Amino acid sequence: MSEEKNLPARAADLTMNPGAFAALKQGSAKALVNALDADPVALATLAIELRRESVAVLGSHEAFVRHTAQGSLQMVIRPVRLSMHDGTIYKIPRNVKQGGSWVKEWPTDAHTTYAGLVRQNAVAGCAVGQAPSVVVDGKAMTNPYVERVKMSNGRLGDIIRIVIGITVVGPSPTTGNPVVVNYTLDYDPSKDLLHQLAKAADQHRDDCYLIDEEEYLEDKQNGNVPRGWKFTGLYGGVGYLYNLRNTKIQRAYKEFVNIAATAVKKAQTVARRNAMRNHPAFVSTVVPDENGIAIIPVIGWAGDESAMRRYQSIQERLARGQELNLDDAEVIDVEAEEYEAEVHDDRAAADEAEAAVDPETEARNALILQIDEGLGMLDPVQIAELGYNPDDATLEELKAVLAKLNAVLDGGVK
Residues near 141 by Cβ (< 8 Å), separated by ≥ 6? Predict the structure, then answer.
């Protein structure tokens, strides 16, 4: 019986000989054929029985069932709708030169925001946690670690560094085995200000430009730097010299003050998003249609009581910052990734993408999103009675479907 414990019960009833089971465990097709004397009927029967035990049909999808020592896991596939209008995906335009002038060119691909990843996680079922400590320059520090400028009067000054570690634990979409992502973000809030200054330098070259730091210090010593001008170092002894009276610079500082006030919260959001993006359960790049919508299949795993107790235990240990000790887990370490404002500025990119969507399309997307969220509470018969076809439906037809859906939900779900 020990040879058969990893095989489905019905397939185990086909015990032709021990060699067949040894071949299955080894994954050797040639050995399996030899063990069954190349009998095509025996091979076909075994394949059908294995499939019958390991594949379930969920809606229009086939989902695999894994039988493991920790319990049975059943793959669940659900479509998840992401949209540019609601900030779950965004595009970053490229500046290209056409006919002597620069124009914005929108790429085909779109990136998933943190909100989009959270929506996917409703199916993927990953646990996202934060350990009590994080390693900073080789030393264990409180997570998140926040470093501030030390002022001469002994008070704490501006935040100059935030290091935060995030752990994501969840099943692999292909096998259901646990995958652990350990992600560390090294965030310097001043990078956001430099990003804003770079934009100002492109648009107001007389009021914001790069200069050698030694030149600036020499001019300052000689009194040649006008009042109301500021220098901020960039890298390698070079930085921006800019006029604080310029309206673009003033807007940049206003935005930066808001960022600095919520720097820890932003670092946590960025770190959680990037940690999730490194987990195979999530889709981080999609191709939306002409309406700015992408519907992607997301894979999750639901298990029996034994398997679910195991994942519940993993989540509890993660929440308490304890060691996970998962012998069968794949571990992905992404250490000390530095924050880049242009790459990680999801909100600005999503806002820009949203502006490119016309009001009617935005209204259609909002209705479709509301309908899709309600469909999960109905059975197949009730869904069919709605006559819902989002691709061809007009705005008025979508409103009618939503009204029917609300009426069904108000009347009670079967």
Answer: 133, 134, 135, 163
Closest CA to 297 of 16, 60, 95: 60
Q: How many angstroms separate the CA atoms of 177 and 400, rounded?
A: 44
Q: What is the pLDDT of residues 290-310, one digit of tens each?
A: 888 999 888 887 665 565 566
pLDDT score recorded for residue 59: 41
Rounded distance between C-alpha atoms, residue 35 and residue 47, angstroms: 15
pLDDT for 58 beyond 50: no
Q: Among 72-81, 282-291, 326-335, name the one with the lowest average pLDDT.
A: 326-335
CA distance 94 to 107: 8
Please, which residues bridge with residue 120 across strands? none
Neighbouring C-beta atoms of residue 252, cutoff 10 Å: 22
Where would I find the beta strands (DSSP E) of 11-83?
A: 55-58, 61-68, 71-83
Mean pLDDT, rounded, of the chain: 75
In terms of Cα–Cα distance, which of 37, 129, 121 is closest to 80?
121
Report how far residue 293's alpha carbon sits from residue 83's, in angstroms, rounded to the nearest whole number.
4
Alpha carbon of 204 to those of 18, 219, 232: distances in Å? 79, 21, 16
Instruction: Report the relative pairing of strands 156-171 and 127-129 from DSSP bridges.
Output: antiparallel
**165 pLDDT above the threshold of 60:** yes
Distance, in Å, from the CA atom of 26 to the CA atom of 273, rounded to the nearest integer, reads 39
Alpha-carbon distance 190 to 232, whole Å?
Answer: 9
Strands (E), 188-292: 208-212, 229-235, 238-243, 285-286
Angstrom distance (rounded) from CA 209 to CA 205:
6
- Rounded CA-CA distance 357/363 in Å is 10
Residue 4 exposed, middle or buried by CB count within 10 Å (0-12, 13-18, 19+): middle
Question: 242-246, 361-365, 368-372, 393-397: which has the highest mean pLDDT?
Answer: 242-246
Cα(161)–Cα(148) distance, integer angstroms: 7
Which tokens is 21 given? 């089971």
DSSP character string of 314-382: HHHHHHTT-----TT-EEEEEEEEEP-HHHH-HHHHHHHHHHTS-HHHHHHHHHHHHHHHHHTTS-HHH
The candidate with the shortest Cα–Cα distance to 110, out of 364, 281, 360, 296, is: 296
> How far apart (Å, rounded) are the C-alpha atoms in residues 94 and 176?
38
Beta-bridge partner residues of 184: 165
